[in-house]
Amino acid sequence: MRLLLIEDEKELAIALSGALGKHGIVTDHTMHLADAVELTRQNVYDAILLDRRLPDGEGLTFIPELRRAGTDTPIIVLTARNEPMERVEGLNVGADDYLGKPFLVEELVARVRAVLRRPSSLAEPGIVAGRMMVDPLNLNVTIDSTPIDLPRRELLVLVALAKRKDKTVLRSTLEAAVYNYEEEIQSNALDAHISRLRKRLLDAGAGVAIHAIRGVGYLLREE
Amino acid sequence: MRLLLIEDEKELAIALSGALGKHGIVTDHTMHLADAVELTRQNVYDAILLDRRLPDGEGLTFIPELRRAGTDTPIIVLTARNEPMERVEGLNVGADDYLGKPFLVEELVARVRAVLRRPSSLAEPGIVAGRMMVDPLNLNVTIDSTPIDLPRRELLVLVALAKRKDKTVLRSTLEAAVYNYEEEIQSNALDAHISRLRKRLLDAGAGVAIHAIRGVGYLLREE
DNA sequence: CCGCGAAGATTGCAGCAGCATTGCGGAGCT
DNA sequence: AGCTCCGCAATGCTGCTGCAATCTTCGCGG
Asked: Locate the OmpR/PhoB-type domain: which residues (chains A, B) (predicted)?
């Protein structure tokens, strides 16, 4: 792990570097914002520790600058001012955390780790079939990444088929996917849905075909 | 944005819910850890506010439990103890932030936003749709970079839609984005919001349309 | 290869569920 | 007090959806 420390008090900086080193963290140190911009351009840091009060200006002004340059490196602001309003100010311009001096090195380490743990991007699953993409969780269907809207029952049928792409889905399974126990079905409503769904998918140019398996069920495949 | 507040002091909890509400944050409240586990299972919260001292135990013990259950929802610990070592302890078991009482609501909001800021989204431009730009964190909406102000509930609906631009958003999801579980809804209030929101967006000349997906939900797209 | 029956496909129709709109009044804020 | 927001409900309307009638396709046996 590698940090950039922007701090003008040389002694503190050295002490901090040493302490962080014991935690297996490599620290680059600069005293000037001007250098910092250049350093972030050339190096990849896991996080930036930023002092507010610096010889060449207010540290906070550095944050928007950095963000504008496209960096998403977490920034932890270090400061003597620890009043609530001050802290709010820091967080609002895009800092990821705010730490008032004096602090324990252990706390700093813990906060760095906490900040680094955040990236929780859950991937959208989505089933691809032909030029169509089905997201069974969110009930979205897109064709060439433009959304298609389908009536509810047809949508449910399609999702059930997509979830088992290239495999036969029993008639009864499809019915269960579309209807609950109360609403029984006494006609070929399912067939009707399939028919209308086919038409809609054809018009929309999804590259898929719904194939009937006689006496068993249906099957979705690319065409 | 929706938070789960785990806090046994009822008055504080109510005050906090109200204050957060003014910032456009919907808050569910529970006093017991046991309930919290169940509530988080549905995974609809953007963040969890956790008191350390709770009737049925130390709040921190909840964190590993939650993480083990696979939740990566950010957790902010609230506590009266604000000593550095205590804070380290909290961060090390997996909390994302730590806030000592008393605190300003503004600071809490700022920290929630900081925690939610995805390192992946660089510089947070917000979501662009048509000539409209939506910042889901700060709840700003601008059209041609002039800010528009919307009633709170309509704003929340719009943000929820914008976050999933071009994708269907379930009715239930929208309701969850606007109401907490106490304030149930028994009419077409959501529809009314949509209708008024449409009108406002039309008047303002946002280049977007809110499309109804019959029986499923709504969808925001550029027009 | 042909014919037949059964399963599937298609489509008009009618009923109605769900959405859109809007006025009203209460509640909350300034 | 004056304002906006917001929930509620009444109204109108769109189009989904179940049904059934009719046509088509499929598979099998002769």
From this structure: 124-222
